[in-house]
Amino acid sequence: MRIIECVPNFSQGRDQKVLDEISQTIRAVKGVTLLDIDPGADTNRTVVTIVGEPEPVMEAAFQAIKKASELIDMSKHHGAHPRMGATDVCPFVPVSNVTMSECVEFAKKVGKRVGDELGIPVYLYEYAASKPEWKNLANVRKGEYEALPKKMKDPDWKPDYGPHEFNAKSGATAISAREFLIAYNINLNTRDKKKAHDLALTIREKGRWLRNDDNKIVKDENGKKIRQNGLFKNCKAIGWYIDEYKRAQISMNLTNYNVSPPHQVLDKVRELAWEKGIQVTGSELVGLLPKDAILNAGKYYLEKLGESAGIPEKIIIETAVQSMGLDELSPFVLKEKIIEYAIESEDKLVNLTLGEFCDELSTDSPAPGGGSVAALCSAISGSLTAMVSNLTFGKKGYKKVWAETAELAKLGQNIKERSLAAIDNDTLAFYEMMDAARLPKKTEEDKKIREQAIQEATKKAILVPFETIEIASEAVELAEKISKIGNKSALSDAGVAAITANAAAKGAYLNVKINMSAIKDEKFKSEISNGSDALINKIDELALKIEKQIKENI
């Protein structure tokens, strides 16, 4: 699933009716989740967090900006926070299976629409910035709303999108693509704010003023203070005392967790604190984070433990939570702390028990059907390879292949996760075909729209099982590898991994073929048909070869 986050900031934090109308506009867009609404009366500003797949999130962002332009009058706005527009900023953030460059394009797409349709000047900043000096939001917003009349007469301030004219009511909007920000606190066994802040100065990117042995700030030959850089880039940190917890904390904003992951910052703070006689007792996540960030932490600690990371993702997450003490101050609830879990549908097929799934399968409802079963077989294949790999890793007599089996276990888990997603995707694709078929067909225009929708939905219904065939191809290759080096006592399980991969491929192949006759795009038909034919032959041949070899060896 491709997931992005959008965090529009609206210049209204006091009128709940306005905030409710903006929220309702966002919630009306199918496919988005409104995760959080954080109003501030003093700042007269509200931060809203929206997540979902790119297209619906872009639509929700635009509709929210439109509604804000109708309800908020910037000529009457006053607040403590810097601002220049009814929607002041609107950043797009990659969360899962989306690149930063894609988010830049999303920002540009929404920015152009806001400029063209709403007549609001739009400036791009951070990763989307069209000028180096506009990369920093503070430069874009310099002078705030009050400076806009002058900027709209200055050629150097021609906006990226929209008219180069002063919009008195809506002001201007800054739209961007940026990295995900993780708000993260480290708990200390002291009430001393100064000790916490001293550690914060050491780790934050900005660092501290350089001091000599007499604790005086060192200056250069021009009399300017010299700064000593901190240990972690993209890390903003302060020390504070929290009366509720009766302890000091290091409070951080990690603005790029790929550069400075929270688990690595934590381990360094543990080391620095220990040298000063301070104990780190745990840590706290404020808000939500992408699943990838906490999985990286769990894998990091499993590696330090010398244990396999080719295990179910919830166990990896559990390892991260325990290792980082994330549940010290309050329970770490996955649906409240991890974005992907927070937006996950409750009625997914993969959440059913095996019995419930089979019951649902056995009714006269056409979905779930063979495509979902094929994906289940692929998931079972990946799981079996991971199992045999984990039964080999760390075992006596197999030390030479520990490293390889550790990697095979991870790959098996990856196949399992992608296949489980395909179980529901196959059923959803079928329902989209049914929805398209139900579209009106009274006029010629209706018929044209309906036919296009049917074609697109049918292509999707083909591409989902085609992806299952591709995953099954990876699964059978993994089964072959583990059958050669895995624990001999689990050789039969490697064989079942190959057989279920083959069953997955053959089942998915039939689901590709049954829908192909309805497709009018000959190029699409040729590419998918030829691709699936080649894959199915390769998978079948390899699976039968593995089965034969295993029969001879057991």
Q: Give, in order, the helices and strands.
A: EEHEEHEHEHHEEHEEEEHEHHHHHHHHHH
CATH class of the largest domain: Mainly Alpha
* CATH topology type of the largest domain: Four Helix Bundle (Hemerythrin (Met), subunit A)
State the helix count. 17
- Percent strand: 5-15%
> How far from one another are the termini?
41 Å
Give the structural class.
alpha+beta
Q: How would you sum up the major sheet?
A: 7 strands, mixed
Tell me the radius of gyration.
28 Å
The CATH superfamily title of the largest domain: Formiminotetrahydrofolate cyclodeaminase monomer, up-and-down helical bundle
Structure overview:
With 554 residues, the chain is α+β, with helices and mostly antiparallel strands. The protein has 3 domains: 3-177, Formiminotransferase-cyclodeaminase, Chain B, domain 1, CATH 3.30.990; 182-342, 2-Layer Sandwich (Alpha-Beta Plaits), CATH 3.30.70.670; 349-553, Formiminotetrahydrofolate cyclodeaminase monomer, up-and-down helical bundle (Four Helix Bundle (Hemerythrin (Met), subunit A), Up-down Bundle). The chain has 17 helices and 13 strands. The chain has helices spanning 16-27, 54-71, 100-118, 137-140, 148-151, 193-203, 262-275, 291-305, 313-324, 334-337, 339-342, 354-361, 370-392, 402-437, 444-485, 491-516, 522-553, and strands at 3-6, 9-10, 32-40, 45-52, 87-96, 122-126, 173-177, 182-188, 208-209, 227-228, 235-242, 247-254, 280-286. Strands 1, 2, 3, 4, 5, 6 and 7 form a 7-stranded mixed beta sheet that branches. It is globular. The two termini are 41 Å apart. The model has no long low-confidence stretch (mean pLDDT 95).
